Amino acid sequence: MTPKYSDMQLDALRELANIGSGNAGTALSQLLGQPVDISVPAASALPLADAVEAVADPEAEATGVVLPIFGDFDATVVLLFLPDDEATLCRLLGMEPHTEDSFSMLGEIGNILGCSYVNALAAMTGLEMEPRPPETVADMAGAIVASVLATRGITGDLALVLDSELFLENEKCSLSFLMLPSHEGIGELLARLGLE
């Protein structure tokens, strides 16, 4: 049975994401040479089967940045960019979407965002969490997540989903952050925060 998380627990996870977003915004501003603001308006902990549908049609084309996490618990972070948002980001950065250069750029942005979120979680919980180098893939949203589950041996049945909005030059670009933890990983995070 999938655990149900309280509003207080989800607020704590959202606040951790907001702290990570602030750090990520600063790092991205330095990388891109222009102000970047990132917000996390929604956080949810969902069964894996519902998580992908919550962020996109599983059959929708998407570009994903996959970031394995090792340490006190294993997890994989997946950042999903839908085509319109990828195109907006590429246009603002003077790149053609779906090219080698744009995939490299999305991988670096995903790496900064993912590492910032994970580092905020680690700092607040005391858990050792080490991100590994990212991989950028293009496929259907559902296929990206299914591939991660199959190749990383993830055994948990829950995903932490953070809807994020990135503002660049007053234009909004949305992306979805999914943390797919090993068994009971989110429960361990909440226990460290005193929110079991």
Write the layout of secondary structure elements.
Elements (H helix, E strand, L loop, with lengths): L6 H26 L3 E12 H8 L5 E11 L3 E7 L1 H10 L7 H26 L3 E3 L3 E6 H12 L5 E11 L2 E11 L3 H8 L4
Antiparallel strand pairs: 1-6, 2-3, 2-4, 2-5, 3-7, 6-7
Task: Please explain how this structure is put together.
- There is one protein chain.
- This protein has 196 residues and is an alpha+beta fold.
- It has a single domain, classed as Chemotaxis protein chec.
- Helix content is 46%, strand content 31%.
- Strands 1, 2, 3, 4, 5, 6 and 7 form a 7-stranded antiparallel sheet that branches.
- A hairpin with a 3-residue loop joins strand 2 and strand 3.
- The model has no long low-confidence stretch (mean pLDDT 84).
Describe what is shown at a glance.
The protein is of the alpha+beta class. It has helices spanning 7-32, 48-55, 83-92, 100-125, 141-152, 185-192; strands at 36-47, 61-71, 75-81, 129-131, 135-140, 158-168, 171-181.
**What string gives the helices and strands in order?**
HEHEEHHEEHEEH
Identify the CATH homologous superfamily.
Answer: CheC-like
pLDDT < 50 stretches: none
The major beta sheet can be summarized as: 7 strands, antiparallel
- Count of runs of 4 or more consecutive helical residues: 6
Supply the helix-strand structural class.
alpha+beta
Report the top-level CATH class: Alpha Beta
Structurally, how many domains make up the residues?
1
Distance between the termini: 16 Å
Helix content: 40-55%
Search tags:
196 residues; alpha+beta; Chemotaxis protein chec; seven-stranded antiparallel β-sheet; 46% helix
